[in-house]
């Protein structure tokens, strides 16, 4: 549906078009570099796409354009949840293993790709009456799996009526 959109326009500003009663908005969000770990980015997403408030019933898809970071929905109130996630994933997918062949960018390279594959590159959240319909304790996480990552790019696509 959105293939006809000029790529440069879609990258630089929120793009809208109507299909019947449906509205579509798409924007790229450049996140600042985050240290390795799990970081709440819900507020940055909501501020970046204020057009969400024009959708009564719909969906927001958040997609990360990287293979060594991921997205997740989880607990947003207690910071120890985020540190526990980091500890668990570091034990589950350790660095410096002799069986890793893809190590060109360092010992965190292949483990970062594995962790990103386990968690995924996108999340989808319902929009109800112009707001993200998250649970009271839910937030959107950037899961940064690299030790020294650059800023990450997200594609935000909101649609509905």
From TrEMBL:
This is Secondary thiamine-phosphate synthase enzyme. Coiled coil: none annotated. Transmembrane segments: none annotated. PANTHER family: UNCHARACTERIZED PROTEIN YJBQ-RELATED, UPF0047 PROTEIN C4A8.02C. Belongs to the UPF0047 family. InterPro entries: UPF0047_YjbQ-like (IPR001602), YjbQ-like_sf (IPR035917). It comes from Yeosuana aromativorans. It comes from the Bacteria. It holds the Pfam family YjbQ.
